[in-house]
Amino acid sequence: MSGFKKRIDSFKWAFNGFKIAFKGEVNLKIHLVAATMAIALGFLFDIDRYEWLAVLIVIGMVLSAEIFNTALEHLADFVSIERRPAIKKIKDLAAAAVLLHAIIAAIVGIIVFSPYIIAYLQA
What is the pLDDT of residues 7-48, one digit of tens each? Predict the structure, then answer.
């Protein structure tokens, strides 16, 4: 297999991963709704380039964390279908990482958008 074909295949596999994640994960859909709202607010309030950077970085962090969490959950379920304390700990840690990213994203959203919302409400 040529190097170029391997690169093309790696993109196909990655897009298949997106498809798997978006089809089966309710939490990812919730994060996508929040991301869409943040992007819409960014356009509505015409945020500056640095604010866009902050918003897009935290969106990417949350979505990536959720996909990693999903992958770890599937791997843990594959390794052991029975309930085990060690598997629960792994799943809880991965879920905590998603929660941490979501909290940081919410804080960034408040920092970026609250001045615009306050100014809009006062107008």
Answer: 888 889 999 988 888 888 899 999 999 999 999 999 999 999
In whole angstroms, how far apart are CA 84 and each of 25, 41, 79, 97? 23, 43, 11, 20
Nearest to 63 by CA among 25, 92, 89: 25
Tell me if 52 sits within 8 A of 74, measured CB to CB.
no
* Domain map (residue ranges) of the chain: 26-122
Fold of the domain spanning 26-122 = Helix Hairpins (1.10.287)
How many CA atoms, within 13 angstroms, populate the side-chain half-sphere of residue 85? 0
Contact 38, 62 (CB under 8 A): no
